[in-house]
Amino acid sequence: MTFAKSRVLITGGLGFIGSNLARRLVGLGATVTLVDSLFPQYGGNRFNIADVESAVTVNICDVRDAHAMLHLLRDKEYLFNLAGQTSHVDSMIDPKTDLEINVTAQLSILEACRKVNPSIKIVFASTRQLYGKPDYLPVNELHPIRPVDINGINKLAGESYHRLYNSVYGTRACALRLTNTYGQGMRVKDGRQTFLGIWVRSLLEGHPIQVFGEGSQVRDFNYVNDCVDAVLAAAESEIADGKVYNLGSSEVISLKDLAEMMTKLGYGGSFELVPFPPERKAIDIGDYYGDFGLINRELGWSPKVPLSVGLKKTVDFYKQHGKHYWE
Ligand SMILES: NC(=O)c1ccc[n+]([C@@H]2O[C@H](COP(=O)([O-])OP(=O)(O)OC[C@H]3O[C@@H](n4cnc5c(N)ncnc54)[C@H](O)[C@@H]3O)[C@@H](O)[C@H]2O)c1
């Protein structure tokens, strides 16, 4: 890895994936600056960086502040652009905020790079949500793009701007379409970020895990350390410039089987099938799993951590540190 002494900026750096990335980059010897707004309804949490806080610079600021971002981006070699409004349901309730954060702010970040730091390398965190309901499985990057919610449309625009700046201005940028990512530091106080968060909380609080519908929908999941590996591989590679890559896993599982797996991690627990809340049903994508062959061939990435191992690590983490995440 080539990050020793490199100056990196992580937007969304107090969030789930951003903080795990920050920890890894500190370990690799990078000089790390984190930008995060810490809006309470998003995934940012100061405890996420408790073990590395003295080794990073934290800037509590909004990526919508174009002037602040211009200043922060000036001297960086890498931008890991992870700040985002991530809730699909919230994007339907408040589409304009999603637009401002996931689109307008992305455009002004790219403009700042073009103006003051044209040689920076950018990795943008996109999402598999923009494919919508799959026509076929596994979904590869050639699958039609048909977002089923506002968040999917806005993330597509953010991703497209990154690729456009790469092709038109030579601002080296690529995007990873993340699938469901889980692990230490994810939001567990509610289901805003991922249903797995609320499942972990239910398990540890002794409530049945609630599985929507029949629980027959299949999904793939990445443990956060695997996701961080992919982000760093994309940052390091020139082949990645201008590209978009799916992440994913070949360990495909139905939500019912996943709930059952969670009850066998050593913490007991149970699950129940409950009707789909209408606001979620309306934007549900049915079965999904991704084809990650392209990133495997071009960057050598594949997920390493089996689901049962990653889930156990995750639940162990919240058993120990849950009090920093419940409220
Ligand atoms: N976790 C997943 O399963 C998943 C799946 C697909 C895509 N992604 C993408 O990965 C990225 C990181 O997601 P995450 O799971 O770590 O979520 P997260 O909510 O934990 O992290 C996002 C961070 O961005 C910060 N943020 C939001 N708006 C901001 C603003 N205006 N200014 C500054 N900071 C702001 C939040 O405070 C939060 O800390 C997001 O862009 C998300 O869309 C995540």
Order of helices and strands: EHEEHEHHEHEEHEEEHEEHEHHH
Largest beta-sheet details: 7 strands, parallel
Average pLDDT for all residues: 96
Q: In total, how many beta strands?
A: 13
- Order of the strands making up the biggest sheet: 3-2-1-4-5-6-11
Number of helices: 11
List segments where confidence is low: pLDDT < 50 over at least 5 consecutive residues: none
Rg for CA atoms: 19 Å
First-residue to last-residue Cα separation: 37 Å
What percentage of the residues does DSSP assign to strands (E)? Answer: 15-25%
Helix content: 25-40%
Class based on secondary structure composition and strand pairing: alpha/beta
Query: Which ions and ligands are bound to the chains?
Result: nicotinamide-adenine-dinucleotide
Shape: globular
Secondary-structure topology with pairs:
Elements: E1 7-11, H1 16-27, E2 31-36, E3 56-60, H2 66-73, E4 78-81, H3 88-93, H4 95-116, E5 121-127, H5 150-169, E6 172-178, E7 180-182, H6 195-205, E8 209-212, E9 218-219, E10 221-223, H7 224-236, E11 244-246, E12 253-254, H8 255-262, E13 271-274, H9 278-281, H10 293-299, H11 307-321
Helix pairs in contact: 1-7, 2-4, 4-5
The structure holds nicotinamide-adenine-dinucleotide.
Descriptive keywords:
327 residues; alpha/beta; seven-stranded parallel beta sheet; 13 strands; binds nicotinamide-adenine-dinucleotide
